[in-house]
Amino acid sequence: MNPQPSSTAETADDEAVDHARGEIVRVGTSLFARGYVHASAGNISAKVGDHHLTTPTDAALGFLEPDRLALVDARGEQVAGDRASKTLTLHRRICAADPTARFVVHTHSTHLVALTLAGVWSDDDVLPPITPYYVMKVGHVPLVPYHRPGDPRVADLVTAHIADRAASRTPIRAVLLDRLGPVVWGPDAATALAVLEELEETARLWLLTDRRPEPLAEHALDELRSTFNAAW
Fold first, then answer.
1. d(CA 69, CA 194)
2. Is 151 helix (H, G, I), strand (E, B) or coil?
3. Does some domain include residue 37?
4. Is residue 103 part of a domain?
5. Residue 93: enclosing H or E segment and its boundaries?
6. So which residues are the catalytic ones?
7. What is the CATH number of the domain that holds 202?
8. Bridge-partner residues for 182, per DSSP?
9. How far apart are CA 47 and CA 92, in angstroms?
10. H helix and E strand count, the chain
């Protein structure tokens, strides 16, 4: 049975929630159509005021129904929709740790999961900075050691990475969960999607070239920092 709406739901702006529903469905459909997700793997959420809207547990992202998306209030209590994804706690913690994060996407993207199986470049940077757009659009991506899906300890590890990188003035936009895939975020759907796409395609490129390309030279990285304010 779906949760009944409560008075706390009144603090979520209906128009904003409807817009977020449309964005989540649009992104899920796009990711599925292009092979970034399969079956019921992955989840998407959007922060709307002090509420969170998320895909239901075990939902197929290519076939989402707007009215069945789960709406959760500021206290973490579900007020509408089907049962929320088990990773919502991680999404909510990311948004709390990074004030710019309002749209979060987790996928089991093939090449990024393959990267964790084959061996990442380093635990602090799963991929080397081999292209300028990887540096500009993605930045540093740390590896989070394997934990079972939905393990609450993952949120502690991810938020610690966010805090550490913010302190070093190289804020992150993504992490890679060992054997489970990437979690990316941004201020809106378009930004988060761009990070995911660039991250997955760079993993594909690096694996296709047998992990042989050298990173960009330091002078090239300096130029990207000074010209485009790249966080590297």
1. 23
2. coil
3. yes
4. yes
5. helix 88-97
6. 133
7. 3.40.225.10
8. 176
9. 8
10. 7, 8
Other Cβ atoms closer than 10 A to 118:
12
Give pLDDT tens digits for 64-106.
Answer: 999 999 999 999 999 999 999 989 999 999 999 999 999 999 9
Type of residue at 49: G
Does a structural domain hold residue 2?
no
Asked if 149 and 107 touch (Cβ cutoff 8 Å), the reply is no
Q: pLDDT tens for residues 13-61? A: 889 999 999 999 999 999 999 999 999 999 999 999 999 999 999 999 9
Q: Which domain holds residue 53?
A: 7-228
pLDDT of 1 above 80: no
Q: Whole-model pTM?
A: 0.92
Nearest to 192 by CA among 98, 128, 119: 98
For 171, the token pair is: 């804020």
- Which three-class secondary structure state does DSSP give residue 43? strand
Q: Which pLDDT belongs to residue 4? A: 46
What pLDDT, in 10s, does the model give residues 143-169? 999 999 989 999 999 999 999 999 999
